[in-house]
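WARN retry 2 of 3 for item q-0093 after timeout on previous attempt; input resubmitted unchanged.
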Amino acid sequence: MTTELSYEGTLKELQTDLGVLRYHEAGDGPPLLLLHGSGPGVTGWRNYRGVLADFAEHFHCYVLEFPGFGVSDPGPDHPMMMAQASVGMFLDGLGLGPVHMIGNSMGGIVATKVAIDEPHRVSKLVTIGGMGKNTFSPGPGEGIKLLMEFTDNPTREALVRWLHSMVFDRAVVTEQLIEERWALATEPTTLEIARRMYSSKAMAAMGAAAAASTAVPYWAQLNKIKAPTLLTWGRDDRVSPVDMAILPMRDIPNGEVHIFPNCGHWTMIEARDAWVASVLAFLTRPEGK
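OK item q-0093 returned
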């Protein structure tokens, strides 16, 4: 029997070098950090409000709101760069050692990078789509292209098209969901920061920078991940197609994959019960089992 958790009742804040980081805290037990994805109107609470109570029965949960998404302070830099930096600041600020991490989409990439660069911070890693590299499918995926369209020209119709690309069952995209996403996505500061990441101009610049860079991309360093890792994916994901899981499945030493049928990018929402059961089984499994 899960307990009802409220937004206001779980919301806290922490002062850091990136400004105020807001987060939701619930439950007792080993620490579990939940990291949200990107996109118009996203927040950590909206990603995980439907499953937080389930995890809070087993873990001391922290849902971090990344800088630049309209809940924590905006921050001055590219959202992806601030996101990874904020994880270390947050864990150090609360005096937390190794934690389990769950990351949705962009949050999964952030958690993966932390597991590569700072392995002492991650005891077990769970990702929801997002991470890896397109192997057979073209990149960027359909959902990313629709996200770029909305960011360049934010209309309600463009938002709905993007939301529909996130799911297998369009009934998940309710009027309430559209309205709450629209309100935050069009808030001026949040929209300006989104354009640092997902405007067509920003995406082109990122592609050019990656092509010119001599740095080793994170997806070529997955073999460095020491933490046991569970990749979860919707079979019908049109944002980060499921073939992206092939490289991490091969390269992460203690990696395993669970693919959910009739499910898009929001696995924790569309395949909620099956996803929660799979993730809890993985996180509570004794070491070495």
